[in-house]
Specification:
The structure is a homodimer of 445-residue chains. Chain A is of the alpha/beta class. Chain A folds into two domains: 2-68 and 372-432, Roll (Urease, subunit C, domain 1), CATH 2.30.40; 69-327, Alpha-Beta Barrel (TIM Barrel), CATH 3.20.20.140. Helix content of chain A is 38%, strand content 22%. In chain A, the strands form two sheets. In chain A, strands 5, 6, 7, 8, 9, 10, 11, 12 and 13 form a nine-stranded parallel sheet that branches. In chain A, strands 3-2-1-4-14-15-16 form a seven-stranded mixed sheet. In chain A, β9 (194-199), α7 (207-219) and β10 form a beta-alpha-beta unit. The first copy, chain A, starts with a strand and ends in a 13-residue tail after the last strand. The mean pLDDT of chain A is 97. At the A-B interface, α4, α13, α16 and α17 of A face α4, α13, α16 and α17 of B.
Chain lengths: 445, 445
């Protein structure tokens, strides 16, 4: 049993719907107690210390401790092609993405990039992610192996795509079904790992493949469905051509049985009102990926609509690397704020922080395991230096604040100005992570 | 006389109008020769070395050397209030900006923040900026003194505002005229410093004050005019109310004689076609400030319209700290790219780099002094590590490229992923800058 002392902040409710008093929990001088990687207690230092008088305590003075961040949409094989110039979605896929993903048939290579990607995530304070691999099961194995070696709570899946892609990247409806089934048996619930059935998007799957994806969800009722939805105007028009009998984009997935409370849809920029309603009804999740949506010129996500109290939809934040331009969920929140401002809405620091902690956990149906410091949860957490760089230090002058209002202001500055330098430490199941040396860029050919 | 060896890139023309061949100059192994802070020669290492065989050479292996960046719009007193939450322009001014600027009546304080701001600029590779101070001449003196101590080419001016602001921040038409005149005598052409007549924006000046600003431009024909223009929808409506007899926002300035080839207008988000035409005709400059325009939700600047070949307008890039969210012109270019993508246009890496080097110099009518490595120009330059962070190193694998096309790709990644960490060194007049220690955040009360 061990303890960590510092300022702790987490959520016990959703600040999109509840007041700060009802949603935010803040201990300016708190103590977190952990045993075997599981949280035993969190509270004011003086109170908790009295209950556990003999534990050894690591004291993070002047630091803010948060639950590990949760990234609800990322492509690990696109790490090396981040910031590919000049295209919008469909051209970008053909020009940059498909040729890059081809390399991931080779497992050795895939392991190197998986290691690099996980190091970047951890360095940026992200401890759980929902991850696309490639069409090659080797790449899925590579990712899960690296994640297991690090004891991470990760969700991933092999991409299913049997049309409208280069031959070298295509599977078939049948092979994708078989390979996915094998991977589920191998990796789902293996240590902390979970599986997501992952058709890339409607345009690259035949109806037969989508139907078989739906069948997998029936056979394995606790795996996830992870795909893309309604990102780009040209894409939506193409889906309409490809599936003329469907009423809208979401309906393509719905007819295959892919719209459920374990479904995560990335983007949803161009959604109609009918699709928003259906997502709410099905209790599905949208992953909001602002840096990607801006980088590809896809448009502005209607976060306010998605989080409407009348027809709420679960929302998480996603980096969407490599169309996203940062591994940092702080930087992602920065651009999420800007996307909201452009629409005349205010994304508060607590709302943004909720999206990457408890909100992300709810978006991935992992609220029982991660997302805040409740007793019994897995102890993935991060230590933040609110004054990590000179400008941040000037903006966030003074000691760690005592009030929720003041810490909210500091967190807002952290999101606008911070990046990986503000993440002092990342802990997985109560153990401090050291970056691996296996993944230095120069060793990756 | 001294030499610097490395890969050099600069511009000899405008890549918005000319081909890369006609606009970009690239020496993968180049030599720059400097005497008394002035550039004597730039060319291939082997060629230039033959002409200057005995000079001592600093070799920046695997580094890219660029002209110092030029920031065409920044408020130094807003440094400490960067990332102020939740408001759009007019409310943001009243809630955060005015109370902050009040502190700058005290010169000692203003000097500390000026020093901090200049250190941030230099650390981010910015060697020249067009700067607003506050209504207090003390703050203008403070900024100019700190800039002179560092031998910098800087343009600044006292803010003129005689209405629609708190009493503690108001001058009068007459006092602003007198104070500005004194400051021009004191600072314009003092070492490398230049003066900009700076009415804040039309709403905070009476017509009398604007007229007197115009009179100053007549009396001192080589000073600048620096103000804000058409940033926010509510602001534009307000200007219409305040100046019902003017045909549009720009016309308010035009009637006071403020629209000329030395005028720099920040933002111009909501400009009408008539205003674009008039700016082109007058050869005025717009400062495009993407991080600020997104942060305040002001909107998307029509860069493509401003840079139209038929009616071209000079454009520079501005951080607009404190409404802008970064001192880095790399990060500013990142968001400039996104603003263009959202409008279906591609901002190329060379176009973006032009805006912060030669384009910025042209925007400020300083092409004779700075902006590229032409013989006779002032030797302000920066040394870039294209592999400064692991992710950037992975994306920009391999040696410094030999071709313009490849270096363009690396520069694009630098703009998307880079920040102050990618700026290895900043040189002013051929001398390497060390950050001052006078401005650590904890010493600023």
């Amino acid at each position: 049993m061990k303890g960590f002392r510092g300022a702790f902040l987490d959520f016990i409710g959703d600040p999109f719907y509840l007041s700060e008093l009802e949603s935010v929990r803040y201990f300016p001088d708190g103590l977190l107690v952990i045993e075997n990687g599981i949280i035993q207690a969190l509270g004011n230092y003086v109170d908790i210390c009295a209950i556990y008088p003999n534990i050894s305590v690591t004291h993070y003075r002047d630091r803010l401790i948060l639950p590990g961040f949760i990234d609800t949409h990322i492509h690990f094989p696109q790490t090396e092609m981040i910031s590919a110039y000049g295209e919008q979605l469909l051209e970008w896929l053909n020009k940059y993405t498909f040729p890059t993903e081809r390399k991931f048939k080779e497992k050795t290579y895939a392991k190197k990039i998986a290691a690099f990607c996980l190091d970047e995530l951890l360095k940026n304070g992200t401890t759980t992610a929902l991850v696309l691999t490639t069409v090659f099961p080797e790449s899925t194995d590579a990712f899960f192996e690296e994640a297991r070696d690090r004891n991470l709570r990760m969700i991933a899946g092999k991409v299913m795509m049997d049309r409208n892609a280069p031959d070298y990247l295509k599977d078939t409806a049948k092979s994708s079904y078989e390979e996915t089934k094998n991977l589920i048996h191998k990796w789902h619930q293996n240590d902390r790992l979970l599986y997501a059935v992952t058709p890339r998007f409607a345009a690259t799957s035949t109806e037969e493949q989508l139907q078989l994806a739906g069948q997998l969800l029936q056979e394995f009722p606790d795996v996830y469905l992870h795909t893309h939805l309604s990102e780009n105007v040209k894409e939506v028009a193409w889906i309409k051509e490809l599936f003329p009998h469907c009423t809208n984009y979401l309906d393509v997935y719905d007819r295959a049985g892919l719209v459920c409370d374990r479904s995560i849809f990335a983007h949803g920029i161009q959604l109609s009102e009918a699709e928003f309603k259906r997502l709410s009804e099905a209790n599905s999740t949208i992953s909001f990926c602002p840096t990607s949506n801006l980088f590809l010129g896809s448009g502005l996500f209607k976060l306010n609509r998605a989080k409407s109290p009348e027809e709420p939809i679960k929302v998480g934040l996603g980096t969407d690397v490599g169309a996203g331009t940062s591994f940092s969920l702080l930087q992602t929140a920065n651009e999420g704020y800007k996307v909201s401002q452009l629409q005349g809405h205010k994304l508060s620091p607590f709302q943004a922080l909720f999206l990457v902690t408890l909100g992300g956990a709810r978006a991935l149906n992992l609220e029982e395991k991660i997302g805040n410091f409740d007793k019994g949860k897995e102890a993935d957490f991060i230590v933040i230096n609110l004054q990590a760089m000179p400008l941040l230090a000037l903006r966030n002058r003074g000691e760690i604040p005592k009030t929720v209002e003041e810490i909210g202001d500091r967190i807002f500055a952290l999101m606008m100005l911070g990046d990986d330098r503000a993440i002092s430490e990342t802990y997985i199941l109560g153990d401090r992570v050291s970056p691996s040396v296996s993944s230095t860029p120069n060793t990756i050919q």
